[in-house]
Amino acid sequence: MIYRFDAEYNGEVIAESKNINLDAFLGLHYPHTDIPTQARELYIKNLLRIIVDVNYKPVPLFTIDDESSKNLDLSHSVLRSVSPIHIQYLHNIGIGATLTISLLHKGKLWGLIACHHYSPKYLSHTARLAAKLQGHFITSQIEVRESNERYEISKKAHDAADEIISKQFDIRRSSLVDIVSDQNTLELCKATGVSMSIGDKIYKNGFTPGDKDIKQLAAYLSVHTKNTKFHTSSLSKDLPELKDAALNTPGLNYYALDKSSNNCIIWYKPETISEVHWAGDPNKAIEKDKNGLSPRKSFDLWSQKVKDQSNAWKDAELVTSSNFVNFMHKHLGFIYLAEEEEKQRQVSEKLKETNSELENINWISTHDLQEPLRKIQVITSFIMTEEAKDVSESVLQKLGRINKSAGRMQTLINDILHYTRLKEGEQALIDIDLNILIKEVLDELQDVVKEKNAEVKLEELPIITGIPFLLKQLFSNLIYNALKFSSVDRIPEITISTFDYHLQPSKIHPPKEYYIIKFSDNGIGFSPEFNERIFKIFTRLHGAGEFPGSGIGLALCKKIMEKHNGIIRVEGIVNTGATFYIYFPKIN
Q: What pTM did the predictor assign?
């Protein structure tokens, strides 16, 4: 007989040759306890074992050194006695002599050639060598046969995987339906069903559990495997808590599709109810009586139905499904990128619409709002000058407040327009001599400077690269602010200078070389806690009644510096003044 072991070392007779008058053992199964672990280890060490007569009388061996701690290793001895339980086992099935030849595969016991004789039988040394040689030949064929089998399975699996991976699927979620529905997705690992869970959506094909059960499997296996992989041919055995989720598909091959969700793909194999014929009840393989342990005495046919089990997943099927999952990772990545690009495109479209609407608002602000404000100012000024004699003092005061409010509104509209008109690529950068530019700004503001009796100290400044009209706006705002927030206790002083880049504070980022302009005044200053907040649009540190303005000027300065890839920061001290540091990047 050829006796083959399964994964748990239960044996099955898969081939036999016998005299016609003998009972057949072909197809019978034997529990792993019939050949225990110690015996299997001996079969690996000694490839041929023979019992010439099961009724032999063992004799003791004595050694010269008879200490109790000394053992004589007879593993490789042909004449070594065997376990009394095994002899009893052979008596129970009526065997007179046995010959066993080990069949090894990859260093493990694959099976045995088991020869039975019903009376004592002596084999010559030559016959034993011939039998051993036959064992070597069959062992060599095991690898050949299994390699051929693996190759055929692997070829079919890889062909199916290559077929589906080579197809040009759309980079959209709808392509997941096409992938799951493709028969090759099942064939690549010989599954009868497949499901793919992506977000709240389940795509499936073939014989699978219901959606609710698939979600339960995905959620549990995500945690159980830490978003890796898992396969079984008997779910109720390996994970009994999930038995009800896959009653008819006990074979599962699970792969997570990302590391942070329940997204996964699961292949399924159906239950294969099989009837196993045992040579006696496997649950009574070893019995205990008054003499101790003894082998079973009954070898009558005992049938068992095996349920909750599928065909095993072949190594080639697992390798191919793993390769397919790598393809799915990439495909899903492309889908997510395409979806993100579409979202960005839609956001961009909305921004274009919003910008267009803002441009319309700017147009309305320029023409439709400023015109009535100008009329209000002209009319109130006319009444306050030309017809003042006919109007009471209280009315004149009210008209004055209306005129000032209209002026503040017009200033606010102009500042908003300046702020919103700063667009990318509005004008090319050119070399600008700051000494000339600031002198032009001072000429434009000379009336305000004289009114405040201010002193402006201008040191030698560098030539930088920028946009002239924006930098005029920048320095105009800074000078005007310094005059507006001057102290009544002292003559306003404004100093504009430059200093070495290496003296700049280390907190400035990103690290690059700058031209640094220092703009300081001796005005009313402000608390250092406002050093950052002061550049936010519409931020005012004082009431509108104390100092006029819209709260946009410094926000506009910051935006101008950002457009020049520069930095502006300020340090304020209450009742002492403020110092602005303006960083223009050096362009080599």
A: 0.51
What single string gives the DSSP state of each residue in 12-46? EEEE----TTSPP-TT-EE-GGGS-HHHHHHHHH-
DSSP state of 367: I
Which whole-number Å values give the CA distances from 226 to 262, 264, 334, in the listed order?
10, 12, 24
Question: For tokens 């090319």, what's the residue?
Answer: 428
CA distance 69 to 63: 12
Task: Assign 425 a pLDDT band (cuts: 50, 70, 90).
Answer: very low
Q: Is residue 297 part of a domain?
A: no
Give 506's pLDDT tier (boundaries 50, 70, 90). Answer: very low
Distance CA 580, CA 36 (A): 89
Q: Is residue 406, in this structure, part of any structural domain at all?
A: no
DSSP classification of residue 313 = P
411 or 217: which carries more pLDDT confidence? 217
Please tell me whether residues 249 and 111 are part of one structural domain: no
Instruction: Count the Cβ atoms, other than its own, within 10 Å of residue 410.
Output: 16
**Would residue 349 count as lying in a domain?**
no
Which helix (H) or strand (E) covers residue 301, if one does? strand 301-306
Kindly state whether residue 371 falls inside one of the protein's structural domains. no
Q: What's 543's domain CATH number?
A: 3.30.565.10
Q: What pLDDT does 331 receive?
A: 86
End-to-end CA distance of the chain: 89
**Predicted local confidence at residue 190, as pLDDT:** 86
Q: How many domains does the chain have?
A: 3
**DSSP conformation class of 314:** P
d(CA 54, CA 231): 46
Stronger pLDDT, 213 or 537, i.e. the higher one: 213
Tens-digit pLDDT profile for residues 215-255: 999 999 999 999 999 999 888 888 888 888 877 888 899 99
Would you call the peptide bond into 209 cis, given omega within 30 degrees of 0 as the criterion?
no
Residue 440 is part of which domain span?
424-585
Q: Alpha-carbon distance 282 to 286, whole Å?
A: 9
Amino acid at 12: E
In a shared domain, residues 106 and 200: no
**DSSP letters of 478-521?**
HHHHHHHT--TTS--EEEEEEE-GGGS-TT-SS---EEEEEEEE
Q: Are 176 and 252 a contacting pair, CB within 8 Å?
A: no
